[in-house]
Specification:
10 helices, 5-stranded mixed sheet, 5-stranded antiparallel sheet, single chain
């Protein structure tokens, strides 16, 4: 059944379900209605926005696609979707263009504080014990895209177009929270004797502030009641009484109601009344209509009361003293600083529109009308600036760019002078050099104003050009001129007519030629003549060349016969031509000869004519040629005999021409000049790339020269070989000098100038292009200077103070109403007027004097009118005169006046001194050197303004100089004075020497050695050797070999036929047979050989070693004379030529023919021989051989720059033997193209330095430690092995030590209460002028205040309020000392540069009644440098009764509170582990569990206590039995150990009940219930007449969680 409550719940649920059902029905019906209205449901789906297109800026347009989607995912027509819900297809956007990068930028804020990383739950993790060193954190910053002009925020996409968005967060570390660290407590304060209740206190100071969420500082004060032996009897407490004075009220004027008509004064201390009255008093001036800055004198009051030592107020009479404190005094009414109204805004500083769009600035100012007095508000800012927006109507700003003049001429001499300071011009120089140009800044020229370029290009200040300036110097090269290299002379040609086409006369020329191997380079390169000629007689341009055939007998086989002659007509070049050109008739076709018969003598053929013994004929000898033939076989009986030996040789003369050759000599080509005959061409580009202006002509002189004689008549040389004397050339354009316009005049100063110094202004212009080729020359004036006109002199302004007014006291009526006294005396104030005037005593505005001075002289000062009881004195007398002795002193006096002479208190000389004494000034000064010696400074000569480039050699860089050391000058009393008293310059000087750098010195190049090969390619070597090593920064040496030499090798080529072996004819064969009857058979023959130089026209022999020793011809050979009966064959003919490929299958053949048949029928020897063509034996191949490129060779006059690298061409036979180049040329082999190329030798350039700048201002205006410096700059760094740049580019010297005068604030005086014992007062400090050497220390000495000038401090700095606590008041202590500087460190390493140090003030409670009014303790922290890392560790004392003292100690040994980790704190009370939970057990001092008195310990095998067993009879005995387990074991210990393991032990070693005990208890409980239930069933009576017992509900004993159980 349900209860009533359940029924109500069911009904409520049913009603709710019914309502929900109805709502669902309505929704379904509405959906069906919509479905019926429209069959398909469609929705709009837009695509992503496309790129922004259109105009740059906010006028862009962005579009996107739109689709109409069915809910099932397919697209339909746009009309299916609801048009009213259609999303926009286009939107306006900001189109970003590249030039927007100047308008927009990312703006990032500073990183915020590091915060802990949030946990998974989204909350910052609390401070946990897991923090060991630091915690991970995050720090964020704001990043936004802004417009530079007005700092407005725009969408980030604009800035992302130029640069990615900077990160907005980064990981960081937060050190673990650090609690406040405080020092140890001080000792308890002492208690005074007495019976009243007292307090004593002790304090401590803060050492380190709380950081990163650490705990705040604990109380820095502890108080406790003093132990008094007895309490005071009632009413007899001992109290002290103090007169307490309150603070002075604000200065005010008396109100109207304080002054009655009868003279009686009624006081009103209220301060809310605004009515003021002006007194008419003897010391008050009437001010009926005061000006705003007039001084008004009012009064101020203070309260006085009496306090008891327990803090309570007492009757004033208990505190009465001889003199009552002053309670009213006159004062100056505070006036705020007054200024004029703001001036109008100045024009915007930006007068043009630049691309940066950065705003300009404008300013306005106001002037001070009157300074603040009486503690009024100080003057506000007098100048205000703000950004001003640039208007679009402004003209664009001028742009400026670097311009340069054209490069000036290349100066080789600069580098040559570097290498050898003694070098002087001896001839044309070439090679590497330095050229310079002027670099200046000028306005950029827009394309539309090119015609005004001359005006726009005026130079302006270089600061207007941005970016690095172009280089003003560079290395350059003047090409060196090299002469031609020519071949050796060919042989002399035949005598031919000068013109073979038109032969005239009987005079002709023989010629020889040579050709150019390497062309000349440069303008001064020279080629020698290539043709030499010799006049001759009977010239013939065409000659018959005859070849002879073999001798054919006319009859039979021997005897007379004939030879067939073949004649060919050839020209002078050796070419076959028509026979009709040869002048003479052709030679006969046959020629008689003779063939020896069997017994005739047989002779060989004539040899070739030998070379001519001389190349020309002179007076002493003529040239000769010889040829010979030899006897091959002797004649027999009846045969034709052999001719005599003289007939075996023939001679003829040769080279009979004179040794005087004729040749044409030419002079260099002249300059290119205009030729009126040549049609002028338009300007074109010449061969060298320069602009040219038409065609001109060049001419040169040509004349005929006879060797060894000189110039001869022109007609003596063949006209056909005459060189040309005129050639066309391209005319260079005229270049006018181009100069910039003059720069603007340097501005004259707008502001006034001090003194009467003349100020000049100047302007300059720069040569951009020098005049050339006859152009207009440059002007002489490049710099102009003139004096500035209408410069005003600055007026000088000064303060003019008036006399002080009489001392003005508090009005009498006020004084009587407050003090009850009418005597006009005591403290007052006096005023004066201070005005600003100019030098001519004209009044000026206050602002003018404030600009030129530190401040305004005081307008108010305190004064005193002496009362009847005061001491009065005369004015101090003048000081007594000083003698010349420096030991003397001077004094001045004053005297008491009136009744003061008789007053006892006025006689006290300590309080009222009547004599003042001071030391006399002394003119003895002591100088002492200060600081280090300066660098050695060379004397500077007069430097002429140089156009062009300054190199290191222009100024003196080494030698004798002077070094300086500053002196500190002081008087006899040790006070620093101006150094001019000791030395005119403030320095001591001494000579010094800067050692000159010495370059590495090598010898000159040796002459080239001879070519290592006499034929073909070899090597020529020349060398330099080290003379002196470099030192003092000189130019280093090149790389030297072991012999300290440097070598240069170039390839060389020797003509292979230059030196050749010349042989004479063989001598007749000398028969070896001793039988004189036989004159035939084998023998030997000899000949002479000699080495000849082919170039030597005289044909003289040279040393045999010059000729190739491998080719030396034999001087002897074997021979044979054939006997009359033997067969005689001719000598072998030459071998036929092998093919160029040297194919071994091809054969070579030679032949000979029969000269005389044998007498008998014996056969003759073979008449032909054949052999294969074998490579490198009888057949050779040839190829061109190229050497490697030589090193870069320079002209003799050059040291660097453009040179030539060469390689040589030779011909080499396949067996490696060098042969003449003609051997390769005859075979038409491909010849390599280039045998020379241009190269560049790096110029060795010494470091180029600028001149020294002017000395800088001293780094300190006075005192020690000031330094001046000057610098120079590297214009061109070292190149190659040049002299390196000096490491010191800055020179320093100490400034003269001038004395420093400074105002020094003294220490604060004790708090002056002016008559009270405690309460509010003021303390003052003095301002004194001291002299020192730059650092104010204890050594600073006071001097006359006039040396420090005007006092810069306000009165508020010299006077401040203070308080003296009364007995019983709770008050703050003085500030503690600043703690040592400490860094925040992690694992001993700091991540900050600035540390922090702290100090604190705490309160002291003097009375229990006042402890609620105590102020709060104050902690102050400041940053510091030079901090250290400290670590904090726990320290502990030794154990005593299981207790010990635990404290925290810093690493420098200071005991502190805080700083150590609370989690790591050691235990102060020792406990056993495991804890002693066994009955009657406790923890002993040894840290183990023991038993109480009367019990003995039963220990387990592991050493822990098992249980405590009571000692029998221990109730009566008081013995303290502490026995170990081993002492009380049973006798049978082994059996005991066996059963100990399974004995019933209900408790664990730690005292907890074992599990089996619970099981046994539960089982026993169930057994008891079972027994009770069984007994009940057995004892119950059975019920009769009940056949089926009712079903019983079983009882469940298990706890099922119901509360009813």
């Amino acid at each position: 059944m349900f209860s009533k409550g359940n029924l109500a719940v069911i009904c409520w649920l049913w009603r709710s379900m019914r309502k929900l059902f109805l709502l669902l029905s309505l929704l379904l019906s509405h959906a069906a209605h919509l479905e019926g209205k429209k069959d398909n449901q469609f929705i709009w789906k837009p695509g992503p926005w496309g790129r922004c297109t259109g105009d740059c800026g906010p006028g862009g347009v962005q579009s996107r696609a739109l689709w109409c989607f069915h809910l099932e995912g397919w697209t339909g027509h746009l009309s299916n979707c609801d048009e009213s819900n259609r999303p926009p297809k286009e939107r306006s956007c900001f189109r970003v263009c590249d030039w927007h990068s100047d308008l927009f930028q990312w703006e990032v804020s500073d990183w915020h504080h590091c915060v802990l990383v949030p946990s998974n739950l989204g909350q910052a993790r609390p401070r946990t014990a897991e923090c060991v060193t630091a915690q991970h954190g995050l720090q964020h910053r704001a990043v936004r895209c802004i417009q530079k002009l007005n700092r407005t925020v725009v969408v980030n996409e604009i800035c992302e177009h130029f640069a990615p968005q900077p990160p907005t967060e980064q990981a960081c570390l937060i050190p673990c929270p650090r609690d406040c660290v405080v020092s140890e407590f001080s000792q308890w304060s002492e208690c005074s004797r007495g019976c009243q209740r007292q307090l004593q206190h002790r304090i401590r100071a803060a050492i380190s502030p709380p950081l990163y969420g650490g705990s705040q500082c604990p109380n820095l004060t502890e108080s406790r009641a003093c132990d008094t032996p007895m309490s005071c009897p009632l009413g007899e407490e001992e109290y002290t009484f103090s007169l307490k004075v309150g603070p002075w009220s604000k200065c005010r004027l008396p109100h109207l109601k304080e002054i009655s008509l009868s003279g009686r004064t009624v006081l009103d201390f209220s301060s809310d009344s605004k009515e003021r009255v002006t007194f008419r008093h003897q010391s008050y001036k009437p001010h009926h209509h005061p000006k705003p800055w007039d001084l008004e004198i009012g009064y101020q009051t203070r309260q006085v009361w009496c306090t008891r030592s327990d803090g309570r107020n007492a009757v004033l009479s208990l505190c009465m003293q001889d003199s009552f404190p002053l309670t009213v005094q006159s004062c100056i009414m505070p006036k705020d600083c007054e200024t004029t109204e703001w001036s109008s805004w100045s024009p915007c500083s930006k007068t043009c529109r630049s691309e940066s769009l950065s705003p300009g600035f404008r300013s306005r100012s106001r002037k001070v009308k009157h300074v603040a007095i009486g503690g009024g508000k100080e003057c506000p800012e007098l100048l205000e600036k703000e950004a001003c927006i640039v208007e679009e109507l402004l003209q664009p700003c001028h742009r400026y760019s670097w311009r340069t003049s054209e490069w000036k001429e290349c100066q080789v001499s600069l580098l040559l002078e570097q290498q050898d300071p003694r070098w002087h011009v001896t001839g044309p120089v070439c090679g590497g050099g330095i050229q310079t140009r002027d670099v200046y800044c000028a306005q950029s020229i827009p394309a539309s104003t090119i015609q005004k370029a001359k005006e726009v290009s005026r130079p302006v200040k270089k600061t207007l050009c941005l970016g690095p300036a172009p280089s003003a110097s560079q290395l350059c090269n003047i090409p060196c001129s090299t002469d031609c290299i020519v071949s050796s002379w060919s042989d002399w040609g035949l005598c031919i007519h000068e013109n073979c086409r038109d032969p005239q006369g009987r005079k002709g020329f023989r010629m020889r030629r040579r050709h150019v191997l390497m062309e000349s380079t440069g303008s001064a390169g020279h080629c020698p003549h290539l043709v030499e000629s010799i006049p001759c007689e009977d010239p013939m341009c065409y000659r018959w060349l005859v070849s002879e055939g073999i001798c054919i007998p006319d009859h039979g086989k021997c005897g007379l016969g004939h030879r067939v002659l073949k004649a060919i007509c050839q020209n002078d070049q050796g070419e076959d031509v028509s026979g009709s050109l040869c002048p003479a008739s052709p030679p006969p076709e046959r020629m008689a000869c003779e063939i020896p018969c069997r017994m005739d003598c047989v002779l060989s053929e004539w040899t070739e004519w030998s070379s001519c013994s001389q190349s020309c004929s002179n007076k002493n000898s003529d040239g000769k040629q010889t040829r010979s033939r030899t006897i091959l076989a002797l004649a027999g009986e009846g045969g034709k005999p052999c001719p005599p030996s003289q007939a075996l040789q023939e001679y003829r003369s040769c080279n009979d021409h004179s040794c005087m050759q004729l040749y044409w000599e030419t002079l260099p080509w002249g300059p290119c000049s205009e030729d009126t005959l040549v049609t002028a061409l338009n300007a074109t580009i010449g061969w060298n790339g320069e602009a040219t202006c038409g065609v001109g002509i060049q001419t040169r002189r040509v004349f005929c020269v006879k060797s060894h004689v000189g110039q001869v008549m022109t007609k003596r040389c063949p006209d056909s070989t005459r060189p040309e004397t005129v050639r066309p050339c391209l005319l260079p354009c005229k270049k006018d000098c181009i100069v910039t316009a003059f720069s603007e005049w340097t501005p004259c100063p707008r502001s006034c100038q001090p003194g009467n110094a003349t100020v000049k202004q100047s302007r300059y212009r720069i040569i951009i292009q020098e005049a050339a080729n006859g152009g207009q020359e440059c002007p002489d004036t490049l710099f102009e200077e003139r004096e500035c006109e209408d410069i005003s002199l600055c007026p000088m302004y000064r303060w003019k103070p008036q006399k002080w007014s009489p001392c003005i006291l508090v009005p009498e009526s006020v004084r009587q109403g407050i003090m009850g006294s009418s005597e006009p005396c005591g403290k007052g104030v006096q005023t004066r007027v201070v005005s600003c005037i100019s030098d001519d005593n004209q009044s000026a505005e206050v602002m003018e004097c404030l600009k030129q001075t530190n401040g305004m002289p005081p307008l108010v000062q305190e004064c005193a009118v002496p009362c009847r009881d005061d001491c009065t004195f005369t004015v101090w007398s003048r000081f007594t005169p000083c003698s010349a002795n420096c030991e003397t002193s001077r004094s001045r006096r004053r005297q008491l006046t009136g009744k003061s002479r008789k007053k006892e208190k006025c006689q006290d000389s300590d309080l009222y001194p009547l004599i003042e004494t001071e030391l006399c000034p002394c003119d003895v000064f002591i100088s002492q050197p200060y600081g280090n010696w300066s660098d050695c400074i060379l004397p500077e000569g007069r430097r002429e303004p140089q156009r062009g480039f300054r190199i290191q050699g222009d100024g003196k860089e080494c030698g004798k100089g002077v070094r300086f050391r500053a002196i500190a000058c002081s008087d006899k009393n040790g006070r620093p004075v101006d150094p001019s008293h000791c030395s005119s310059s403030g320095y001591i000087q001494e000579e010094c020497v800067i050692p000159c750098p010495f370059d590495c010195k090598l010898s000159d190049w040796s002459s080239w050695g001879s070519c290592s090969s006499s034929c073909g390619i070899g090597v020529r070597i020349r060398s330099k050797w080290l003379k002196e090593k470099p030192y003092n920064g000189g130019r280093p040496c090149p790389r030297l070999d072991l012999k300290n030499q440097v070598h240069e090798a170039v390839p060389c080529y020797s003509e292979c036929n230059q030196y050749s072996w010349v042989v004479e004819h063989w001598s007749p064969c000398k028969i070896h047979n001793e039988l004189r009857s036989l004159r035939c058979g084998g023998g030997t023959q000899s000949r002479k050989i000699r080495c000849m130089n082919a170039a030597d026209g005289e044909g003289g022999a040279v040393d045999n070693s010059l000729c190739n020793q491998d080719e030396i011809p034999p001087e002897t050979q074997s021979c044979s004379l054939l006997c009359p009966s033997e067969c005689v064959m001719s000598e072998w003919g030459p071998w036929s030529k092998c093919p160029q490929s040297c194919d071994p299958h091809s054969m070579q053949r030679r032949t000979r023919h029969l000269l005389r048949p044998p007498l008998n029928s014996r056969t003759c020897a073979e008449d032909s021989q054949v052999r294969p063509c074998l490579l490198n034996e009888n057949c050779f191949q040839f190829q061109y051989n190229l050497t490697e490129w030589s090193t870069c060779q320079l002209s003799e006059n050059a040291t660097c720059g453009q040179g030539v690298r060469t390689r040589l061409l030779s011909c080499v036979r396949s067996d490696g033997k060098p042969v003449g180049v003609d051997q390769c040329e005859q075979r038409n082999l491909e010849k390599p193209q280039k045998v020379s190329i241009h190269c560049l030798v790096e110029c060795v350039v010494n470091c180029q330095l600028s001149g020294w700048t002017a000395w800088t201002e001293c780094s300190k205006t006075c005192g020690h430690g000031g330094r001046m410096s000057r610098t120079r700059f590297i214009i061109m760094p070292t190149q190659g092995e040049g002299r390196p740049c000096p490491t010191e580019l800055t020179q320093q010297k100490t400034c003269p030590v001038t004395p420093c005068y400074s105002w020094v604030l003294g220490n604060w005086s004790t708090c002056k209460l002016e008559g009270g014992d405690c309460g509010e007062g003021f303390q003052i400090r003095s301002l004194s002028c001291v002299v020192h050497n730059g650092s104010i220390s204890d050594l600073a000495i006071s001097v006359d205040d006039a040396l420090c000038g005007e006092m810069p401090f306000q009165d508020s700095i010299l006077k401040q309020p203070c308080s003296v606590p009364c007995p019983g008041d709770c008050h703050l202590t003085e500030w503690s000392e600043w703690s040592t500087c400490e860094l925040t460190c992690i694992n001993g390493r700091s991540f900050e540069t600035m540390g922090r140090q702290s100090r604190s003030r705490t309160f002291i409670v003097q009375s229990f009644e006042n402890q609620d009014s105590c102020p709060q303790q104050v902690l102050e922290t400041r940053p510091c440098t030079g901090g250290k890392c400290y670590h904090y560790t726990w320290k502990a004392s030794l154990w005593n009764n299981n207790e010990r003292t635990v404290w925290c100690q810093r690493s420098d040994g200071i005991n502190v509170t805080g700083g150590c980790s609370p989690q790591a704190r050691p235990a102060a009370i020792r406990q056993c582990n495991p804890a002693c939970r066994k009955p009657f057990s406790y923890c002993t001092q040894g840290g183990v569990c023991g038993c109480e008195k009367g019990y003995i310990e039963i220990m387990r095998s592991n050493g822990f206590l098992d249980y405590c067993m009571k000692v029998p009879g221990s109730d009566d005995k008081k013995a303290d039995a502490k026995n170990l387990a081993g002492k009380n074991r049973p006798v049978n210990s082994k059996i005991h150990d066996i059963f100990k393991g399974w004995s019933l032990q209900p408790l664990d070693p730690d005292g907890r009940v074992k599990i089996w005990v619970y099981g046994v208890s539960g089982g026993g409980f169930l057994i008891m219930i079972f027994l009770v239930f069984t007994s009940y069933l057995l004892c119950k009576k059975p019920k009769p007449h009940q056949s089926t017992p009712p079903q019983q509900k079983p009882l469940t004993l298990a706890y099922d969680g119901d509360l009813d159980m």
